[in-house]
Automatic annotation (TrEMBL):
GO terms for molecular function: glutaminase activity; imidazoleglycerol-phosphate synthase activity; lyase activity. SUPFAM superfamilies: Class I glutamine amidotransferase-like. GO terms for biological process: L-histidine biosynthetic process. The keyword Oxidoreductase does not apply. This is Unannotated protein. Keywords: Amino-acid biosynthesis, Glutamine amidotransferase, Histidine biosynthesis, Hydrolase, Lyase. Pathway: Amino-acid biosynthesis; L-histidine biosynthesis; L-histidine from 5-phospho-alpha-D-ribose 1-diphosphate: step 5/9. Residues 4-188 form the Glutamine amidotransferase domain. It catalyses: L-glutamine + H2O = L-glutamate + NH4(+); 5-[(5-phospho-1-deoxy-D-ribulos-1-ylimino)methylamino]-1-(5-phospho-beta-D-ribosyl)imidazole-4-carboxamide + L-glutamine = D-erythro-1-(imidazol-4-yl)glycerol 3-phosphate + 5-amino-1-(5-phospho-beta-D-ribosyl)imidazole-4-carboxamide + L-glutamate + H(+). It comes from freshwater metagenome. Heterodimer of HisH and HisF. InterPro entries: Class_I_gatase-like, GATASE, Imidazole-glycPsynth_HisH.
Length: 200
């Protein structure tokens, strides 16, 4: 079973439908035990970094994510769900940055680009060690964001350029993440989801 963590942020129903195409049962939940024990946990996210962290903290999300990783249970973060896995984010912060979950030590900051948000289809330069992009090396994915991580973290990173180069996906053992929305990325996104569900 795949659990999609409901903490008040994200396109939960579209994510539920997309992940159901994998053939696995999918549940949208904020229940700690369900989220901890599912075969895979998806952490979505839409909106601002700080607001997502507030919602995540309210359901014990950081603890669930950390415990799953310790227990070797896969986690996939999507969009802001990727960003909050970093240690800090500068969005709407008057004091420098907001604290994230801290799975990866790094900062999510405003893209230096002529047009923001970065909205629409863009290509991904996938890492040679990738599992999740196998068969998708020449595909494009759908992005909606103005902030991003710009320094490499984890075991394998994939990159996209919009004004500047940023991390568009990370594969790091039991935790993976994408800055793009696989559930909005058509056939390529569904193939990415199937690659992830096969890998868990």
């Amino acid at each position: 079973m795949i659990a999609i963590l409901d903490y008040g942020s994200g396109n939960l129903r579209s994510a539920e439908r997309a992940f159901a195409t994998s053939g696995l049962d999918v549940v949208v939940t904020s229940d700690r035990e369900v989220a901890l024990n599912a075969k895979g946990l998806v952490v979505p996210g839409v909106g601002a970094f700080a607001a997502c962290m507030q919602g995540l903290n309210a359901v014990g999300g950081p603890e669930i994510i950390r415990e799953r990783i310790v227990n070797e249970r896969p986690v996939l973060g999507i969009c802001i769900g990727m960003q909050i896995l970093f240690s800090r984010g500068t969005e709407h912060s008057k004091n420098g940055s907001h604290a994230g979950v801290g799975i990866w030590d790094g900062e999510v900051s405003l893209l230096e680009a002529p047009i923001l948000p970065h909205m629409g289809w863009n290509s991904v330069e996938s890492d040679a060690q990738t599992v999740l992009f196998q068969g998708l090396e020449n595909e494009s994915f759908y992005f909606v964001h103005s902030y991003a991580a710009k320094k490499a973290v984890g075991k394998a990173q994939s990159w996209t350029t919009h004004g500047e180069k940023f991390v568009s996906a990370v594969e790091d053992g039991y935790v993976s993440a994408t800055q793009f929305h696989p559930e909005k990325s058509g056939d390529a996104g569904l193939a990415f989801i199937k690659n992830w569900t096969k890998s868990i």
